[in-house]
Amino acid sequence: MNKILIVAAMVILCMHKGLYAQSESYYSELSRMSKANQTFNAWEGFINIRDFVTLKEGRLILELGDSRDYEDFRNLDSILLELRKDIGFYKDSLAANPTGNCRIDFCYSPGFQFKKIRFKSYSPEGTMFLNVKGDISKLKFEQDTVRIIIQKSKPGKGGPANAGCMIPYSIQATFLLDNYYDIDKVIADSVLRGIVDTLEKSTPAKRHKNIIDIHLPFSIVYNPYYSGEDALKVNDRLMKNEFDYPYRSRKRNYFSGNFNLGEGIVMNTLTPMAELGLQYNTKTQFDHNIYSLSASPYLFFAKNTQGNTKVSDNWFVNLDIGTLEDKNQNGWFGREGTFGVGYLVSQNGGYFKRSTFKIFTDLQFVKGFTIVPEIIFTDNTRQIFPGFTLKVF
What we know:
Elements: H1 2-15, H2 23-32, H3 35-40, E1 49-54, E2 59-64, H4 76-86, H5 91-95, E3 101-108, E4 115-122, E5 129-132, E6 135-138, E7 144-158, E8 163-177, H6 183-189, H7 192-202, E9 218-222, E10 232-235, E11 253-266, E12 269-283, E13 287-303, E14 309-325, E15 335-346, E16 357-366, E17 369-378, E18 383-392
Parallel strand pairs: 1-9, 3-7
Antiparallel strand pairs: 1-2, 2-8, 3-4, 5-6, 7-8, 9-10, 11-12, 11-18, 12-13, 13-14, 14-15, 15-16, 16-17, 17-18
């Protein structure tokens, strides 16, 4: 029955070649995995949520497709009780390796009666002992791993006719314990349901995506036994472990100020400029969208009839909208695709006459330097000419 289900899933994936961008990757990844690894490991490409929880006895790692999968682990205590009952026949074999470590995988599919169990034992790196006032006992350093795997499927769409199909995937809960039988202490602690509820409530909004639609993955690091403000941290990226990356403690939406200096070219004339603005940022995974309101003067220098230098300052108010990348993507740094409009609010000589506005785009190809191509409309749009600015910040 198990083989039939796997083959059926493969056939469905092959028939619908247009199953989003990742169905081919999913199939090729499965083809390289052994049957055992296909069964007892969730495929990394379908993991959008990875949460790390500190327990009194070890740690728990939850790996899910989306926030709706928390529901499957709400009865994690009952699943662990079932696991303890089902592995009773293997108890003597586990006891035969007291100083090494073991991994126990417990896999099942909701709606089916059969369950699959795998045991892997690892020998210790040498024989270690503990001496306490002459009392010698063997010492165990390695942790045991207990993993619960739930095999699921989710509707998907693809192909020329946008046909529907079911996408198989797995979610898993991994316990890292000093000894596998500490599962009994975890169950007795009666905290798992509360942990799952807290994690689900703490997930960022709008996470109910199709399992193929991997936008904005995230991780939560949670210590339910700590009452401080650092007890729960949400990170807007998929972490490999709880020490993988410094927490992004900044709010996802926030205001910031910006100040730039630069040099512009207007009608073949070099003109210094400055920019002072307020920026509103909305965070995503690797970048954030920006909405900036700024004021920038262009300074023109000329000699008056007495031979003295006269400075003419012309002030634009600008609205700038676009994306600021936090991570180098495809060789591009910083701002990308930023578009803005500006209106002349203070005129004091130079090339500008009557109603004047401009459109521009910010492009940053080297960190700290931004080039700004512009098109300027002046004299009530009767005159149009290009401009160019280099900003340094």
